[in-house]
Amino acid sequence: MIVSRNPYNGEEVASIKEFTKKDIDEALDVADKRFQSWKQTSFSERSKLMMAAAAELKKNKQEYAETITLEMGKPITQAIAEVEKCAWVCEYYAENAERHLSKETIKTDARKSYTSFEPIGIVLAVMPWNYPFWQVFRFAAPALMAGNIGVLKHASNVMQSGENIQKIFERAGFPKGCFQNLPIGSNKVEDIIRDKRVKAVTLTGSKPAGSSVASVAGEEIKKSVLELGGSNALVVFKDADIKKTVATCVQARYQNTGQSCIAGKRLLLQDSIAEEFLELFSKQVRELKSGDPMDEKTYIGVLAREDLAEDLEKQVSESVKQGAKIHLGGVRNGTYYEPTILTGVTKEMTVFKEETFGPVISVTIFKDEKKAVELVNSSDFGLGVSVFTEDLEFAEKICPQFDDGAVFINELVKSDPRLPFGGTKISGYGRELSIHGIREFVNKKTVYIK
Ligand code: NAP
């Protein structure tokens, strides 16, 4: 049995029978057979179904959001927003997939030559618990619209959400086998990647998991996309609009109780505005309401599991030993971790070097642009960076200096169906969303007619 428990009170939420080897084999058989007919369907048929999935998400958003909140402790209002965003990505690909994948003519000496974008078959998605719906839908919507088949290995603590996602596609009318949730532990992933019927794998999660999945995919010469951790910097220059920037930075770090790959985990402040900024920032963080994740007024819920809260506590205490100061918070109570601000953080300290997956921000002060860029790039991660300044010319000039997969000016780093999303360095490779996401799992076929 795979059991999910409410991290707020420890109560069991769901208990799902784990698939045996035989169950997995049957599911892959269903998926493989389905591919033969699904790949022949037209974009308009797929679009109709994808729009129905969006409608189903909107209609029953409360029900789906409640399961998310119960399984991983995200505040209910944020869970509802997550479900709504999934409807958006379904609509986006329903409307744009055909355009993204239409043939591209290339002028050569041939009578006709072009690239066509064709589905490859079953893609395995290994997904994390932090956005139990969004991570899956941003893979599933383009995959299905491209004519591929999805099989999901969801994180063990949000398995009911995985089941719900399969139900959504079924309720929308997708033929059986287009999308299946496989209730399995991570020890079954290797065999699935090696299975001949499975053509590619995408993983969103931690570096160890990504590394392990990519090694197996590499041995089998199968395509992989990795969306891994991040330690985004929020860089505030002295000419930034302080009031607006504070509000954006609070949201960037503390939404989803800090459990987001693209959260702004390292706050870099230019020396002349650091004190003023920190005062206002601390005031707003102090006002964030913690409480029962099911309460609509709650902004800070609990962490998804107690071991994760313990890991965070260890990172903070190590950093304090290394010389960081607790400016605010720093106390854990079971799965709850107080919104925390650490000051005096240097790039040698644990909270700067590692990803902190909870409501903890590290503050480092810099003197000039050169130092700011050096601090941002000194991280092993490369998911995204936010830069705050009123000088937009300077902002655009500084963009190419960052190693990251995304630079957002005067905004928090966020995923948007219209924009490519993905990292560099140990944050992974490949892109999701936009035209780039849907083209990851297709055969870019060259056709040459003499
Ligand atoms: P995780 O422990 O790596 O788990 C992610 C998924 O991988 C789960 O389904 C897990 O299954 C599975 N898994 C774990 N070890 C595996 C292995 N050796 N082989 C195959 N599968 C394995 O990560 P998490 O704790 O759920 O999520 C947090 C991490 O995800 C953070 O680092 C966060 O930054 C990252 N993340 C990245 C993005 C992005 O877009 N870049 C988005 C969200 C989250 P079990 O649950 O059964 O162990």
From TrEMBL:
GO molecular function: aldehyde dehydrogenase [NAD(P)+] activity; succinate-semialdehyde dehydrogenase (NAD+) activity
InterPro entries: Ald_DH/histidinol_DH, Ald_DH_C, Ald_DH_CS_CYS, Ald_DH_N, Aldehyde_DH_dom, ALDH_GabD1-like, GABD/Sad-like
UniProt cross-references to SUPFAM superfamilies, sorted A to Z: ALDH-like
Pfam families per UniProt: Aldedh
UniProt KW keywords: NADP, Oxidoreductase
Occurrences of domain Aldehyde dehydrogenase (ranges): 4-447
UniProt family annotation: Belongs to the aldehyde dehydrogenase family.
Official protein name in the record: NAD-dependent succinate-semialdehyde dehydrogenase
